[in-house]
């Protein structure tokens, strides 16, 4: 069923507490934790607790949960005391997606080039 935990999903395991993570925020519907391979001084991943493979699938199935994710990206930035940040949602391996449980990267604390690579 859509949104149900997937046995082979790393981020579902983080939600379940089966894989450790440095959690910085948590809500009823989301978890935010530090990226294990940070690409900026602030690099936090925000995920819904429910499993959806990417942002479009999440928004199609549960638009309010998609909004929770984006709001939490802002809350992470506020908590990290950064006023400028980039939110990245990779979709597909060709775009660099390696974990197929939707996650918003929140990147901040260094110059962020535009356009991004
Ligand atoms: P993406 O490449 O957009 O799918 O992003 C996946 C991100 O998850 C990468 O930036 C990884 O560094 C990060 N990552 C992988 N395993 C872990 C983990 N156990 N804890 C925290 N972040 C992780
Ligand atoms: Zn998952």
From TrEMBL:
CDD domains, alphabetized? PKCI_related
PROSITE patterns for this protein: HIT_2
| Family annotation (Gene3D superfamilies) | HIT-like
Which segment of this protein is annotated as the motif Histidine triad motif?
101-105
Q: Residues in domain HIT?
A: 10-117
What is the protein's name according to its record?
Histidine triad nucleotide-binding protein
Organism of derivation: Streptomyces durbertensis
């Amino acid at each position: 069923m859509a949104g149900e935990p997937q046995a082979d999903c790393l981020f579902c395991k983080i939600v379940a507490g089966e894989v450790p993570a440095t959690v910085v925020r948590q809500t009823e519907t989301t978890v935010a934790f530090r990226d294990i391979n940070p690409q900026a001084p602030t690099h936090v991943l925000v995920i819904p607790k429910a499993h959806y493979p990417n942002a479009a699938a999440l928004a199609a199935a549960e638009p309010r949960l998609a909004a929770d994710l984006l709001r939490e990206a802002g809350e992470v930035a506020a908590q990290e005391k950064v006023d400028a940040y980039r939110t990245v949602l990779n979709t597909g391996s060709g775009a660099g997606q390696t974990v197929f449980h939707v996650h918003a990267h929140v990147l901040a604390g260094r110059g962020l080039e535009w356009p991004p690579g």
